[in-house]
Specification:
There is one protein chain. By secondary structure, the chain is of the alpha/beta class. It is 28% helix and 32% strand. The strands form three sheets. Strands 1, 2, 3, 4, 5, 8 and 9 form a seven-stranded antiparallel sheet that branches. A six-stranded mixed sheet has the order 10-11-12-13-14-15. Strands 6-7 form a two-stranded parallel ribbon. α3 (128-142) packs parallel to α4. The longest helix has 15 residues, at 128-142.
Length: 262
């Protein structure tokens, strides 16, 4: 069997990815596989992934976030430059740039199978001066923007004060704010569009959701409680439920045979 080692250099609002592959054998000293490294690569991840998608589709994008004064942060800046993405990153000395390493079995499988992941990160809140610098960077970038995308990995970057600041600025400039908050949805009350998955919606509402009718009611309830124009609830192999205004629509998955869940 062949094994691929994927490393993802991620920051809550910015990131990278690396990888390696090789033959694997069993360890004689413990019941664990031993992959042998043969190659590697890096990829943009976290909020840098949708940012990269925007640029790849022909748009322009500015990535705002926090990195450390380490080699990972330096590599991230290089990759953003090479991808044509404008850099509005704030460096926090001594803070690690999040680095996620994925070990993936490939071999004869149609799709690679994740075996393990090693994360190097901190979830400590960023210092007040860094938060102020990031808020200023976002405000400056919004001057020429059509939309604000917020990808909150809950890594200590998006504090309540920073959230209020950037949402207020986008509202003042009449720029739509689209949010993927990975939970704690109420912190983003007032955003234009909020995306969450089934688990996050159930956590926010305090109940389990089954069937289209329950998801429709949940999406409308979330839209109202979050004072948002729209809410998207992703449902894995069941597609997604979209509430916009008073209208709800269920969208079926494009290809049920290629659905991956966390």
């Amino acid at each position: 069997m062949w094994v691929e080692l994927l490393a993802r250099l991620v920051e809550p609002d910015s990131s990278i990815c690396s990888a390696a592959s090789g033959v694997f054998r069993n360890d004689a000293e413990a019941p664990v596989p031993v992959p042998e490294y043969t190659q590697g690569f890096f990829r943009l991840g976290g909020a840098a992934n949708p940012t990269h998608n925007v640029v790849t589709l022909g748009g322009e994008a500015v990535l705002a976030g926090v990195v450390g004064d380490d080699d990972v942060g330096v590599r991230l800046r290089w990759m953003l430059r090479d991808a044509g993405i404008s850099d509005a990153l704030v460096t926090v000395p001594g803070r690690p740039t999040t680095h996620k390493t994925r070990i993936v079995a490939k071999g004869t499988l149609i799709f690679a199978q994740h075996l393990a992941r090693i994360d190097r990160l901190t979830r400590e809140p960023i210092p007040p001066d860094a938060a102020a610098s990031l808020s200023d960077a976002v405000s400056e970038a919004l001057a020429g923007a059509d939309v604000l995308l917020i990808s909150d990995y809950r890594g200590g970057v998006m504090s309540p004060d920073l959230i209020r600041s950037v949402l207020a600025k986008s509202a003042e400039m009449r720029i739509p704010a689209v949010v993927d908050a990975q939970g704690a949805l109420s912190r983003y009350r007032g955003a234009t569009l909020v995306k969450c998955n089934r688990r996050e919606a159930e956590s926010e509402l305090g109940r389990r959701l089954t069937g289209d009718d329950e998801f429709a009611g949940a999406a409308l309830e979330l839209r109202s409680s979050l004072d948002a124009d729209g809410v998207v609830v992703t449902r894995g192999p069941d597609g997604m439920t979209v509430a916009w205004g008073g209208r709800v629509e269920h969208l079926e998955p494009v290809n049920r045979s290629e659905v991956f869940e966390t």
